[in-house]
Amino acid sequence: MSAARDVPPDATAEPTVAEDAALARELAEATGALLMTLREDTAPGRSREYRGDAEAHDFLVGALARHRPTDAVLSEEGTQDPAPRRGAHRLWIVDPLDGSSGYGRGGDEWGVHVALVVDGALVAGAVALPARDELADSETVARVPDTPVDPDRGLTVTVSRSRPPAELRRLAAAFPVRTRAMSAAGVKTLAVVDGHVDAYLHSGGQYEWDNAAPAAVAMGAGLRVTRLDGRPLPFGADDPYSPDLLIARPAVHEAILDVLVPR
Ligand SMILES: Nc1ncnc2c1ncn2[C@@H]1O[C@H](COP(=O)(O)O)[C@@H](OP(=O)(O)O)[C@H]1O
Ligand SMILES: [Mg+2]
Prior knowledge:
Helix 2 (17-41) runs antiparallel to helix 3 (46-67) and helix 6 (185-193) packs parallel to helix 7. The chain is an alpha/beta fold and 263 residues long. The chain is 37% helix and 22% strand. Strands 1-2-3-4-5 form a 5-stranded mixed beta sheet, with helices on both faces. The protein contains 8 helices and 10 strands. It folds into 2 domains: 17-137, Fructose-1,6-Bisphosphatase, subunit A, domain 1 (Fructose-1,6-Bisphosphatase, Chain A, domain 1), CATH 3.30.540; 155-260, D-Maltodextrin-Binding Protein, domain 2. It has helices spanning 3-6, 17-41, 46-67, 100-105, 168-174, 185-193, 208-220, 250-260; strands at residues 72-75, 90-98, 111-118, 121-129, 134-137, 155-160, 177-182, 199-202, 224-226, 245-248. Magnesium ion binds next to strand 2 and helix 7.
């Protein structure tokens, strides 16, 4: 009997995308539960925020090491040295606690992000918003209907509460724009996925851990996710800086890019 036949057919096979998305969901939910318990056990303030960041990171990265021991991980709270993840075939990009200052204060606009990039392409992700009882993953999220833009009604756009994008003014010159300020990238993204707003627009900077899992869920829902010039978001770069983003259903995405990127 050959050595190859001693190995069960799928023993060395990679997990499927559905298995990776299910793991992302399971770990986002479990990390969120840990953060809910910590929030109940601590007083509002910076100490709760710092403990949330650190304890969620330790739990999530530990769980990934057990479930996917050979995969690389980029976490907001982990090492910023790109060497261990450079060129990784499979790279998990996680934000153990996005919207950490709101978490520290005791609000509900915060979340847990878990995403997987394979050979530089975003393939799966999950976002948990535990204080809002929301959990979504790229495989099971419902498709958003691509309703056309009504130019008279205009668009509702969610933006950072603390750092609203300068591009809003250019949009508002083209059609009526109502803005909805929210904290945390996952909160804003799920507001688009749930149809509460038409688009999430951000500029002025972010990091791959802020938008990888939200982007995966949004793409799973049939939304378009790009930079503000229409190029794809970067994932797996040595520098995890991610300058800007636009998440919207295709008809809205096109209408906004028509304004922002004169063609
Ligand atoms: N201009 C900027 N530069 C760097 N990070 C930014 C940024 N604007 C937003 N972010 C990050 O993106 C996440 C969502 O921000 P916002 O709530 O303002 O939309 C936050 O992550 P953290 O909460 O994990 O730090 C925040 O730090
Ligand atoms: Mg973040």
